[in-house]
Structure formats: structure tokens, C-alpha cells
Design brief:
The chain has 322 residues and is of the alpha+beta class. The protein is built from 9 helices and 12 strands.
Length: 322
């Protein structure tokens, strides 16, 4: 028993220590949140070791001999012990509360000098608007070392914004604006994940977040502006990858979505009116094997006329090619 116990203990300790349980902490907020997490975890480990140690000692020391059928001696509490085991947990829980509140205040305080990105969730895509530059993209670009306030909203149902490496997570709720701060500390590409069950395409509601240097960020903004200025089918293609690609497969746009019909198959031979109608009134004609009311019916409201026509123009051009 002792040998088995020791072997299991060693194996579990190795599993606990050797596996990186948390994703890398790549924002200043993540480092603070992880500190709280480990603070609580270490307290739990110490208490568990203490309780397990006392239990094992009692089993070993006070075990009844085989011929002993007596009841144990009656015991009527121990005031000193009760005071200790009430006071110690109370002190620990208070310490956890205070530490958490301090960190929550730190990561929620909007600094005077910060950027803003407006994040919009809709079934089943994220879009990011950069008000300073009047740019909208399907990619969240953040300059390294600078605090960005993400103002979250939703067009249809509740979604939830999360980048595991940044730790910060917040619901995007229709009708109100919520916000979180992110100060990335490492260049790289991350995945924005929707963590609120929001419909059939929930699992594919992902976007890319890129952390760039200051100059890389300026270049990225300039490139996005150029794409938007190009208009027509080029703008339509960008829009397609942002708004439609998580649900629809289309080789030309490089999208892999499998929630809705494969556009490489259903698009050829369709005219502009049909494409337009399918976007703004998706229930008008449902492709065989698919259900109505899966594709959001509000694209006529959420897209501008110019966006709609560039999307139709792009899809017409693509339909003609295949
Ligand atoms: Cu949006 Cu889940």
C-alpha cells in the first residue's frame, strides 16, 4: 500500500509539474491573472498536504488492533483547535479576496494612453473596427506593448471573446457595449475563440489576432486601407473571408467552412439577383440537404449597400470562373 501510494504520488507530482497546463502568458494582464491562479493553487496544495498528512498519520498511529472491539473514547470538541481551523481559512479566503480584487482593479483600469478597437460578434464571425484609421477587418491587429481597449458588442445573440494567451475573456452582448483591456507582450499570431454557445456555427467562430511591432502595425493598417479602397470584387473577397468563410467553403477565397452549402458546387450558373437574394433572404431557397434558419437572416441590415454589391460582384466573378 505504502509503495503503491508513493508511486502514485510521484507519478502525479510529475504530471503536475512537467505538463504545461496553461497556455503561454503573452499579455501583462495574463501574467497578473496567472499570479492569482498560482497563489490560490499553492494555498490549496499546502492545505491538501496538511489534511492528507494528518489523516495518514492518524490511520497509522491510532489504528485499532485486530482484537479491539471497543468504541473510541468520547471526545467533546477542542476550543483551541476550533478557533484555529476557523481563523486560518478565514484569513486565507480574505487574502485571496483582497489579492483578486487588487488584480481585477489593475487589469480593468483603462489607462489614459490607450488604443481602441471595436469588436463585433455575429453568427458566426468576428469583425474588428479601428476607429482611429476607419478600417474594418476580420483580423485583430495589436501593437506590442501598448494597451488596447476592446469594446465588444454583438449583432444577434450573446457571443464571448477569448484569446487564451491573453487570458482576458468577456461576453459580447446585443444592445450593450462591454470592454476589456489587452496589453500584448509578444509578437505572434493567436486565435480569437467564441466561448459562448451561439448556434450551429459556434465551434467555427474563430478569428486571427496578430501582435505586431509599432511599424508592422502601421504597415498592416495601410495595407487594410488599400484593400478597402480597391472596392469592387477585391473588397468583396475580403468581406467574404470575414463574414461568410467560417460557414461556406470557397476555393478562391481559401475558406473551409462546412456549416452551409459548398459554394464551389452551388455557385456556378447563378445570377446576381439570386446571389443577392440568398444573402439577404437566405430562407428563400434552401440548398438540398440543408436546413432553413441556420444562416442569419439579417445580412441585409448588417451590411451596407456598397458592401452587399461588392460581395455580389465578387461571387459573380468567382461563379463565372468555376
Ligand atoms: Cu459566437 Cu459562439
Amino acid at each position: 500500500m505504502v509503495l503503491v501510494g508513493a508511486a502514485v504520488g510521484v507519478a502525479l507530482a510529475l504530471v503536475a509539474v512537467l505538463i504545461p497546463w496553461l497556455p503561454p502568458a503573452d499579455s501583462t494582464e495574463a501574467i497578473k491573472i496567472d499570479d492569482v491562479y498560482w497563489f490560490v493553487t499553492i494555498i490549496c496544495i499546502v492545505i491538501f498536504a496538511l489534511v492528507a498528512g494528518v489523516s495518514l498519520y492518524a490511520v497509522w498511529k491510532f489504528r485499532a488492533p485486530p482484537d479491539d472491539t471497543d468504541d473510541g473514547a468520547p471526545i467533546h470538541g477542542h476550543t483551541g483547535l476550533e478557533i484555529v481551523w476557523t481563523a486560518v481559512p478565514a484569513a486565507l479566503v480574505t487574502a485571496i479576496t483582497i489579492y483578486s480584487a487588487v488584480v481585477l482593479h489593475q487589469i480593468d483600469t483603462v489607462p489614459v494612453d490607450h488604443r481602441v478597437v471595436e469588436v463585433t460578434g455575429q453568427q458566426f464571425a468576428w469583425s474588428f473596427h479601428y476607429p482611429e484609421d476607419n478600417v474594418t477587418s476580420g483580423v485583430l491587429a495589436l501593437p506590442i506593448g501598448q494597451t488596447t481597449e476592446l469594446k465588444l458588442s454583438a449583432k444577434d445573440v450573446i457571443h464571448s471573446f477569448w484569446v487564451p494567451e491573453f487570458r482576458m475573456k468577456e461576453d459580447a452582448v446585443p444592445g450593450i457595449t462591454t470592454n476589456i483591456l489587452v496589453t500584448p507582450t509578444k509578437e505572434g499570431t493567436y486565435t480569437v475563440i467564441c466561448t459562448e454557445l451561439c448556434g450551429l456555427g459556434h465551434a467555427v467562430m474563430r478569428a486571427q489576432a496578430v501582435v505586431l511591432t509599432e511599424s508592422g502595425y502601421d504597415k498592416w493598417i495601410a495595407a487594410e486601407k488599400a484593400k478597402a479602397a480597391a472596392g469592387g470584387s477585391a473588397a468583396g473577397k475580403t468581406l467574404f473571408t470575414q463574414q461568410c468563410g467560417s460557414c461556406h467553403m470557397l476555393a478562391d477565397a481559401g475558406t473551409q467552412g462546412a456549416v452551409g452549402p459548398d459554394l464551389d458546387k452551388v455557385l456556378p450558373g447563378k445570377n446576381a439577383d439570386f446571389i443577392h437574394e440568398s444573402i439577404v433572404n437566405p430562407n428563400a431557397e434552401i440548398a438540398p440537404g440543408y436546413q432553413p434558419d441556420v444562416m442569419p437572416g439579417n445580412f441585409g441590415d448588417t451590411l451596407t449597400d456598397a458592401q452587399l454589391s461588392s460581395l455580389v460582384e465578387y461571387l459573380m466573378k468567382t461563379a463565372g470562373k468555376s
